[in-house]
Amino acid sequence: MTASATQPTRRERRRRPRSRATFFSVLGELLLTAGVLVMLFVAWQMWIGDIIISAQSNSEGQAVSREWAQLPAPPPPPAVEEEDGVVWYEPPLLEHPENGMKFAQMLIPRFGSDYNVAIAGGTTRPATLDNGWIGVYDQSVMPGQVGNFSMAGHRTTWGFPLNRIDKLRLNDAIVVETPEGWYTYRFRTLEYVTPDSVDVLLDVPQVPGAATGERYMTLTACSPLYSLAERIVGYSVFEGFQPRAEGPPESLAPVDDVASPSW
To answer: Which of 111, 162, 172, 226 has its CA 20 to 30 A from that of 189?
Structure first.
């Protein structure tokens, strides 16, 4: 058998079909790439970005607390010694902040010793909430005052400062820090309401026209996670004010079982 009978000619080699990219193969690769990018964006928006923003917010809050600690302590407010010997300070009256203006920090030991989130005026997203801060409603009283100190914050996205609100336990401390000192509230209960249930912001939540002389705190956030269908509401009652001159209150003591984030 000759070489010409067993070896393909140059023309035969040239006639072999080439592998070419078809329209559908290119389209499939583009769709696959787009799907991966969308998944990465969703992961960033719902988890990774939140973790980064939350860590940055806590770090900035801790820096604010350190700065306040280095300032000269203002004189303590008037004090009253109760029958059991406990000294009770009349909480300083703070001015209501303008929209987007930070004036305090929120500390919640159940959320970890590093939890330190700014509190600012207003509940608009561009000026306050989307910065990862907790916002004070326009009709709210200020911390420590008779009535309802009411606030809102994101539960998902933008640093999710109130992500773990559903994991608060009875008597957990919720502390508001200002240059003057610390306002301690104690958690009582949760409630789920529709978005139009504005009665939770009344001076006595859910009781129109009532006047008890008590001092409440109300925290609101969207519920369930990744939904606007309802609002989760956390109620707390005021325990007392600790002047900065006396150092941090015992209510800031670490807890053994720190709540983990909800995904």
So the answer is: 226
